[in-house]
Every structure is written in C-alpha cells, then in structure tokens.
From TrEMBL:
Name of encoding gene: pglI
SUPFAM superfamilies the record matches: Nucleotide-diphospho-sugar transferases
EC number: 2.4.1.293
Keywords: Glycosyltransferase, Transferase
Transmembrane helix as UniProt keyword: no
Protein name: GalNAc(5)-diNAcBac-PP-undecaprenol beta-1,3-glucosyltransferase
Top-level taxon in the UniProt lineage: Bacteria
Classification of source organism: Bacteria, Pseudomonadati, Pseudomonadota, Gammaproteobacteria, Vibrionales
Pfam family, one: Glycos_transf_2
GO MF annotation: an example: glycosyltransferase activity
Segments forming domain Glycosyltransferase 2-like: 7-106
Annotated Gene3D superfamilies: Spore Coat Polysaccharide Biosynthesis Protein SpsA, Chain A (3.90.550.10)
Length: 280
C-alpha cells in the first residue's frame, strides 16, 4: 500500500550538536515516506557543513540557507513553501521525535476530516531526565474557545500541507507566539484541533540553554499579538499579560528576569511560556 509523504521542517541556528539529534530522530522514523526540510538561519558554526553531508547520505533531505539570520518564522515558511508532502509537521532543533511519531500521526490522519490539526502529548526532558508533565498527556478536543485563554496546543501540530499554505503559514511580523497565532488561524478556518494521547515528542526544557527572551522587542510582540486577536482573546488572558508586562518592567530593572521566567513556568506548566522566546 502506498503511503502519503509527510514533510518535517526544522529551522536551525548555531546548534549543530542538538540539530544532529533532531535530524536523526526524523530520518530513523518507522514511517519512511517522508521528506526532511532543514533551513539554516545564518549559522556560523558547522551546521551547513553537517547539512550538506546529511543531504548526500539521504535523498529525502532538502536543505536551504539564509546567509543572514532572518528569524525562525521566515525559516519555517521557506520550508513550508518547498514542502511536497501531503501532510506536514514541525520540529525544533533542540527537541526530537520518538521513532513512532509519524506513524502515530498517519494512523490518525482520518481525524483531519473533522479537525484542523492533530497534536500529541509531550515528554519533557532536562539533562536527559524525563520530567513529569500531565498538561498535554491526554486525548482531547482543542477548542478555539479554549485557545482564547492561552496556548493549550504546544509548539507543533500535524496537518495537511495545503492548509498551512492556504493561510500563509507563520506570521513573520510577530516577535513571539508565532505558533499560537498559527493555531488560532487554523482553528478559525478549519475548525477545532485534536490532541492525541501518544507521548512521542521529546521537549528539551534545559534551563541552562533556553530562557524567555525578556526584551522590549518581545514585549512589543506580545502587544502586537494581543492587538491582532483582541476580539477573540478572553479578558482573563489580556489582563494576565498586562500584569506580566507591568511586572516585567520592574523586574528587568533589577536584573532578575530569570525569576519572572521561573514564576510563569511554575504557574502555567512545563515550557508553556517558552512560546515567549524566539526559538530557533
């Protein structure tokens, strides 16, 4: 039986060792009819050399490079523009797939007749240790009404490639919450999403490597996002982030932004607020 091609896209920037882990988790999938598209966003390490060798060793790999960094969203959109798979999903270069992830999605693909996208449960890891996280680990419908109060989807989905292309993929004008914005637009056009109970995405939450990027540019991005979706977002959501921005202003002056990251991480779940960061 012929199985449809699935595209996996990875944007990357100066994290070649982690990128190797991510790429290997894709090319070693039990589901083999795939294409892996990696966009090097202006890396200055050995990323491009590694990718050229990877492409030579596996014809399913496509690679692109921005000579100057243009950001994760632009890089993702380059990959999506070149995608030829019927289905598509993403991967961050510091995370990796369980080897059954694409098979799990493909076996559930008929749900896309009813839902705009599928997501999955995650396995948070730190220093190779698995952390407990029950936030995403259940099969449930992901309602647009719930998205009005926060991103309960995560940072990756599985959907039809033509859907991402139709809604013009990621909004490169956003400095943060680009994935959240995309999930909202998918739900608005194609209906609610569905989270599967499979835990097959390893989410690296190592605090030594990734922090919320607390900068005026990110705060402007939050304000832009809220303005863009103002009529959809709940009053609770808008009030919560007005408070965040207010508190951030005082904490930043004291040089204690890590404390703010810790507070919001504990209060709202593992890596929930990593969406505030510009994640390559």
């Amino acid at each position: 039986m012929n199985r449809d091609k699935i595209t996996v896209y990875i944007p990357t920037h100066n994290r070649v060792d982690l990128l190797k882990r991510a790429c290997e988790s894709v090319i070693n999938q039990s589901y083999t009819n795939l294409e892996l598209i990696v966009v090097d966003d202006g890396s200055s390490d050995d990323t491009w050399s590694y990718l050229k060798n990877l492409k030579k060793s596996d014809e399913r790999v496509l690679i692109f490079r921005n000579e100057i960094s243009k950001g994760a969203c632009v890089s993702r959109n380059i990959a999506i523009d070149h995608a030829t798979g019927k289905y598509i999903t993403g991967l961050d270069d510091d995370d990796y797939f369980a080897l059954s992830r694409l098979d799990n999605f493909y076996s559930s693909r008929d749900n896309l007749n009813q839902y705009s996208f599928l997501s999955s449960s995650v396995i948070p890891i730190c220093d190779k240790n698995i952390l407990r996280n029950e936030l995403y680990n259940s099969k449930r419908e992901l309602l647009l009404s719930e998205l009005s109060n926060g991103n309960n989807v995560g940072n990756q989905v599985f959907t039809l490639t033509k859907r991402l292309k139709t809604i013009k993929a990621f909004d490169a004008n956003l400095n943060c919450w680009q994935d959240y914005d995309l999930w909202i637009r998918l739900c608005c056009k194609y209906g609610n999403g569905l989270n599967l109970s499979n835990a097959d995405y390893y989410l690296d939450v190592d605090p030594k490597r990734e922090r919320i990027t607390n900068s005026p540019r990110k705060i402007n991005g939050m304000n832009f996002f809220i303005d863009k979706h103002y009529n959809l977002l709940s009053q609770s959501f808008k009030s919560r982030y007005k408070a965040y921005i207010y508190v951030y202003g005082g904490i930043r002056k004291q040089g204690k932004c890590d404390l703010l990251f810790l507070f919001f991480s504990v209060a709202y779940g593992v890596k929930k607020y990593a969406n505030l960061a510009y994640k390559h």
